Amino acid sequence: MNDSANSSLEALVLGIPYVILCFIFLPLYFMVIWVLSVNPIFEGSIFYRILKHMAVANAMSLNSTFMGGLFELSQSTFSDFISITSGSLSSWFKVAICLLHILLSINRFSVVFGFHIPFENDIHQYSIFLMWYALAVLLIMTPYLKLEFEYQLDRHWFKEPSELLEKPIDHARHVVSFIYIIVILKYFCSVGTLIRS
C-alpha cells in the first residue's frame, strides 16, 4: 500500500508540473516566433533566423514534456505509437538544439571578430533543412521501425537507444571541428594580413 501511495504521489509531483510548464511556455514561444517572423528588422539577419528556428524547436519539444506529464498522471503510455513518437521528438530536439547552438556560435564568432564567412548563409540553410528533414523522417519512420524511444514510467522519461546515436554524433563532432578549424584559420589569415599592412 505504501509503494502505491508513493507511486501516485510521485506521478502527481512529476505529471502536474510537466503539463503546467507546457501551458506557460507555449504562448511565450509563440510570441517570440511571431515577433521574429513579422518584424521586418529581423528578416535579413542570420542570427534572428537561427533564433526563430530555436523557438520553433523549443515549442515542438514541449510536446514530449506534455505527453510525459500525461503519461505520469495516467500511469499509462496509452499506446506504443504515441509513446515512441513523443520519445523520438524528445531525442530529435536534443540533437537539433545542439546544431542550432553551433550555428549560433559560428555566427556570433564571425560577428565578434569582424569577418564575414562567405559560405555561412549556405551552411545555415543546409543545416536547417537537414534538421527539419531529419525530424520528418524520424516522426514518420520511428513507429514503424519500433525504435526504443518509448516512455519509461519507472525512470520518468523517454528511453533513448544511445547505441544508435553514437555514430551520427561522432560524425557531427568531426564536421563541426572541421568548420571551426576553417573559421579559425580564416581569422588568423586575416589577422596576418592586417599585421603585414
How do the strands of the widest beta sheet line up side by side? 1-2
Overall mean pLDDT: 81
Number of strands: 2
Radius of gyration: 21 Å
Q: Approximately how much helix is present in the residues? A: over 70%
How much of the sequence is in beta strands? Answer: under 5%
Which descriptor suits the 3D outline?
elongated
Distance between the termini: 81 Å
SSE-based structural type: mainly alpha
Question: How does the major sheet shape up?
Answer: 2 strands, antiparallel
Number of helices: 5
Please provide a written account of the structure.
- The chain is an all-alpha fold and 197 residues long.
- It has one domain.
- It contains 5 helices and 2 strands, in the order ααααββα.
- A two-stranded antiparallel sheet has the order 1-2.
- Strand 1 and strand 2 (157-158) form a beta hairpin.
- Helix 2 (46-74) packs antiparallel against helix 3, helix 3 (80-112) packs antiparallel against helix 4 and helix 3 (80-112) packs parallel to helix 5.
- The chain crosses the membrane at residues 12-38, 91-115, 127-145, 175-195.
- Keywords: Membrane, Transmembrane, Transmembrane helix.
